[in-house]
Each structure stands twice: as structure tokens, then as C-alpha cells.
Amino acid sequence: MHVKSGDTVVVIAGKDKGKKGKVLRVFPNENRVIVEGVNMLTKHKKAQGPTIPGGIVKMEGAINASNVMYFCEKDKTGVRVGHNLLADGSKVRVCKKCGEVLDK
Ligand SMILES: [Zn+2]
To answer: 78: part of which helix (H) or strand (E)?
Structure first.
């Protein structure tokens, strides 16, 4: 996966194209992500008893991870992400455009 939860991404395809948001959840097995404010679904919920009323609940639906790009704060745009191996053997993600290390 090129993104992980907490990343800021921009949507590059679909009905929310151009929207920017924070990744809330990733599903690596399905290659899908949930992005804050993107692919909002409206669910009509039944009351769950006297203390929990029903009503309309809005929530984000998962979208395909290939429809989002990492948003680089430096470039102010969606960028491709590369991986660099550090001297100590750990892997970090880097912006392919400006070279900025994305994992601190
Ligand atoms: Zn960059």
C-alpha cells in the first residue's frame, strides 16, 4: 500500500475526484481505503432502543486505493510515492517529485 492511515491524500478518480482528505482506515487485503469526507454514504438507521434514536447517519465508504494519491504538502499536489532503504535497514516513503521523506 502506498498510503496508510493518517496520510493526507487526494482523490484522482471517481465522483469525489479532486477531494482531499485524511486516510481513516486502510484495508490492505482489498486494496481499499476510507478517506475522511470522501464517498459519503447515507444510511437510514433504525432506533436501537429507547435511548438510541434512529435517523440518517452519514459515513464514509471505502474506495479503491489506486484512486488516491499521497498529497505532498511541499508540492501541494498528489504525488507518487517511492520507497527508500535507510542505512539502518528501515524503509521510508519518499515523495517521487520533491524527494521529501514522508515517514518521519
Ligand atoms: Zn513532494
So the answer is: strand 77-79
The grid coordinates listed for 17 are 475526484
16 Cα–ligand 1 center, Å: 22
Tell me the three cell numbers of residue 76.
501541494
Cα-atom radius of gyration of the chain, to the nearest Å? 17
Cα(60) to centroid of ligand 1, in Å? 27
DSSP secondary structure string for all residues of 24-75: EEEETTTTEEEETTSSEEEEEEPP-SSSS--EEEEEEPPEEGGGEEEEETTT
Write down all domains in the chain, each with its CATH number in brackets. 7-78 (2.30.30.30)
Q: Ligand 1 centre and the CA of 94: distance in Å? A: 8
Residues 11-69 pLDDT 10s: 999 999 999 999 999 999 999 999 999 999 998 888 888 898 889 889 999 999 999 99
Q: How far apart are CA 6 and CA 93, in angstroms?
A: 14
